[in-house]
Amino acid sequence: MAKSSPTQASPASPAGAVSASAQSVAASASNAAAQQAFLVRRLVTSYQKNTPQSLKLIDTYLVFVMLTGIIQFVYVLLAGTYPYNSFLAGFGASVGSFVLAANLRMQVNPENKEFKDTSTERAFADFAFASLVLFGFVVNFLG
Amino acid sequence: MRSQILLSPILLVLLALVGHVYARRVIPSFGDITLKITGADGSDIRSETLTSPPRISKPLTLGSGSKLTLNVPVKDDKGKALSLQHLFLGARNDKTRDEKTLVCASKGTGVFTCELDQSTLDKLHPGPHTLTLYAGSVDTEPLAHKLGTAEFSIAGPSTKGSSDWDVFQPLPEITHKFRPADKMPNKILSLTFSGLVLAPWLLLLGSYIVLGANFTNLFSSSVSFISGSAFMGSLSLCVLLYYVYWVKLNLFQLLGYGSLLGLITAILGRQALVARAAMRSAGVPRSVKTE
Hints:
Chain A: It comes from Spizellomyces punctatus (strain DAOM BR117). The complex is a heterodimer. Chain A is an all-alpha fold.
């Protein structure tokens, strides 16, 4: 809670009351922003410190796939849907790859107890096989 | 023996009846036919009497609006007036060989009236026609008697039907309408986004370099190197097969080659991952936590 300034007008007068409340709102807003910035910094630091390299590599791949999907979608919004099947193939490849990579990340994450019986090699084999099937359908739909 | 005795009178009666019927069939004939042609205004164009056997000496000429009237007396072989069930006047086009028949009305006492007016002329084609009288009844012999020729100077039947049910007329030609071509996007926009969509690759490769991705584990043992390299090579071949399918092959070829390549990839992949799992079990670090 910010301390009131010595030069502030007395709260008894209406003008003084308005400026006091405005200052308190501004102070709380800047406080919230500072808290958010702090939380983000803490998240980033914790991510960089505690996340294994393999998961970071998969996360990078996820960001890459997401960006390609977003760029394709923006293009369709600007240029139109022709040819529509090509857009569906490309966007489907991005979405499908994202899903498969996210599943791989869940299975590879040592913190995830649900998949403790699944080896990383098995998870990667599933990911590779499913990706091949996905890209088979994508290429078939390209036109 | 008794049945033969009973049958013989029945047969005789039947024979007598049949014989009676055939014996009583009358042979009809036409008496003197009165012919009259009137014009559209009702004026008398031609009138004559065709003496038996009735024949039109000079060909008739009928134009649009004309009316032909024939009074046909029918007689039996004894010259008495004969009542018939039907008498028809047939007009056969000598060119098209199409014949239209007209029912002649009976006035009673064996006299029939055949009227060929505009309503019948509308159904005929122009040109020379042969007029024939057809007489028929149950108890008379059939009779077809050619009267003569008539020239119809008419426009011919209209192509449009006389009723709403006549729909046999040419309809407007159907021309195929091709689907309008799709609107092509701006070339500069397409090229720009082609470059933009490839830009995340730079981000990916750069991030991998920053994160320290490497192939050191591939070279940790000969088994790992051989099986890992072969597995990655087979995955590359799969991608190449997809490209060739997109450009050249059909689905059946893709399935054929793909099943073979998929089997090789599966075997090599298993070998590579088994080697990797063995390395992991032996204590080779799987990943390095970055500070």
